[in-house]
Each structure stands twice: as structure tokens, then as C-alpha cells.
Amino acid sequence: MLSCQDVATRASALIDGELGTWQTLQMRLHLAMCKGCHRFIGQMQTTRDLTESLPAADAQDEDNEDRISAILSQLYEEKPDSG
Amino acid sequence: MPTAGAKEAALVQRLAAGDRAAFEQVYHRHNTSLVRVATGVVRNRATAEEVAQETWVAVLKSISGFEGRSSLASWIFSILINKARSRAKREGRIVSFDGAGEDDNLAAAFDGRGRWKNMPELWETLTPERILAGRSVMAHVNAAIEALPPGQRSVIILRAQQGLDADDVCAILGISEGNMRVLLHRARLAVRTALDGLM
């Protein structure tokens, strides 16, 4: 029988679907009986979803336009020397 | 419909041909994450922005040599990690991503028999739009990620935000797959603890 600490240690593996059938069954059995672990797994799922929904892309603002221009001008300045 | 691989090959060709729009597309997709990962290594936002800029110049200079053995994103992040590590080394620091010596601080939540000392709360209403302590939930998530050690921070950004494959993340950071899973779990635990403290 898994302890709550065992369940918490395997929480990411469970929500990412990385556990084998037997381990998943043991986890599900514990979760069916333990309100604390059930809530904890819910918290970890919410955490995963929130971290995955952080915007990865940059805003297309003026600063970025300036940085892009700086990168391209640096490239063209260096090109003649690089052969 | 072209496959993802064919689309990427076309993008690489456009980059090699000096197509500014193609560069802007790739820049906007990755630059925020490049700066976030680099900040974890060089510990300074302004230096991290310089490292990201050096990375872009290196990417454009050597794009014609890109052979597609990894994804374009993996290749770009590998260049960034090398540059950020070199910068840290010049400052006398060796940065490793394996998380050795770090703890998840979870053991304190349990009694001697491995049971919760305090019942975890129900987070029924935690949505990205919700405001907690005057800031959006996403601002708190971002701040919690910024506070992570370099390995955890890099793994969660590359996996969760950039959506890179596990194999690519391991190759970029030079860690094993088991190690990467531990780091991702610890990163989530830290973000979860930060959010729980606000509830």
C-alpha cells in the first residue's frame, strides 16, 4: 500500500502518464480512498496546466523590433570578416 | 499539408536566404524563453539579453550548416546554453543542470508514517485569469519559475513553454531522462508551493 508521501513523489509521473499499469492502479486505489492526495494531484495538474499556458512568444513591441535590427546589423557587419 | 519537418526545412531555407520575416517569426517564438533560460545561468537579466543576442547572431551566421539532426529549437537552445555557460565560467562559476544537492522540500509535509500533516487545500477556482495578492495567477507562476535553480528552471521552460521533446531537453542540458523527470517534478512542486501560499 502506497503512503501519501509515495503518491506525492510520483504525482508528476502519474499526471504525465509515465507510470506502468500496476503502479497506476496502486495510485488510483490510494486516490480513491485519500482526500488529501486527491486534492494534491488536482493541485499538481493545475500547476502543470498553468506552467504550460504561460505565453512563450514575445510581444511584437518596439524594443523587440530594435533588438531584431541590432542582431541583423551586427550580422552584416561581421559577414565580410567571416568569409 | 506539409509535415512539421517540411515546414521547418522551408523555414531554415528562408533563414539561410536572409529572409527578415522568417527571422522575426523564429525570434518571437523563442526569444522570451532564451532570455529566461539564460537568466538562470548568468543570474542577471541584462547579461542574459546579451547572451540571447549573441545566440541569434551565431544562429544566423551558421544556419546554412544546420543539418536538421535535431529540431531548429533544440539547436538554438544548445547554442544559447553553451554561450551562457561560457559567460558564467568567465565569472568563475561552473553551472550544471543536474540539480545535485537540491531537495524538493516535500518531506516536511508528511508525518513519520508518510501521511499528510495538513490536508492539501482544494484549488477549485484557480484559473489563469484570477487575481491573487494584486497580481494575476500567471504573474505568480512566472515569478515562481524565475526563482528556480538553473536545472529546474531550464527543464520547465523547455518542456512546458517551448514544448520540446524529452530527448531534446536532455541533449541540450546534458542530463539523463530520469534526471529531467525529477527536475520537472521539483519545478512543479516549487510552483505549486508558491501558489498554495497565496490561496
TrEMBL record, chain A:
<dbReference type="InterPro" id="IPR027383">
    <property type="entry name" value="Znf_put"/>
</dbReference>
<feature type="domain" description="Putative zinc-finger">
    <location>
        <begin position="4"/>
        <end position="38"/>
    </location>
</feature>
<protein>
    <submittedName>
        <fullName>Zf-HC2 domain-containing protein</fullName>
    </submittedName>
</protein>
<dbReference type="Pfam" id="PF13490">
    <property type="entry name" value="zf-HC2"/>
</dbReference>
From TrEMBL, chain B:
<dbReference type="Pfam" id="PF08281">
    <property type="entry name" value="Sigma70_r4_2"/>
</dbReference>
<dbReference type="Pfam" id="PF04542">
    <property type="entry name" value="Sigma70_r2"/>
</dbReference>
<dbReference type="InterPro" id="IPR013249">
    <property type="entry name" value="RNA_pol_sigma70_r4_t2"/>
</dbReference>
<keyword id="KW-0805">Transcription regulation</keyword>
<dbReference type="GO" id="GO:0003677">
    <property type="term" value="F:DNA binding"/>
</dbReference>
<dbReference type="InterPro" id="IPR007627">
    <property type="entry name" value="RNA_pol_sigma70_r2"/>
</dbReference>
<dbReference type="InterPro" id="IPR014284">
    <property type="entry name" value="RNA_pol_sigma-70_dom"/>
</dbReference>
<comment type="similarity">
    <text>Belongs to the sigma-70 factor family. ECF subfamily.</text>
</comment>
<dbReference type="InterPro" id="IPR013325">
    <property type="entry name" value="RNA_pol_sigma_r2"/>
</dbReference>
<dbReference type="InterPro" id="IPR039425">
    <property type="entry name" value="RNA_pol_sigma-70-like"/>
</dbReference>
<keyword id="KW-0804">Transcription</keyword>
<dbReference type="GO" id="GO:0006352">
    <property type="term" value="P:DNA-templated transcription initiation"/>
</dbReference>
<feature type="domain" description="RNA polymerase sigma-70 region 2">
    <location>
        <begin position="27"/>
        <end position="93"/>
    </location>
</feature>
<dbReference type="InterPro" id="IPR013324">
    <property type="entry name" value="RNA_pol_sigma_r3/r4-like"/>
</dbReference>
<dbReference type="GO" id="GO:0016987">
    <property type="term" value="F:sigma factor activity"/>
</dbReference>
<protein>
    <submittedName>
        <fullName>Sigma-70 family RNA polymerase sigma factor</fullName>
    </submittedName>
</protein>
<dbReference type="InterPro" id="IPR036388">
    <property type="entry name" value="WH-like_DNA-bd_sf"/>
</dbReference>
<feature type="domain" description="RNA polymerase sigma factor 70 region 4 type 2">
    <location>
        <begin position="143"/>
        <end position="190"/>
    </location>
</feature>
<keyword id="KW-0731">Sigma factor</keyword>
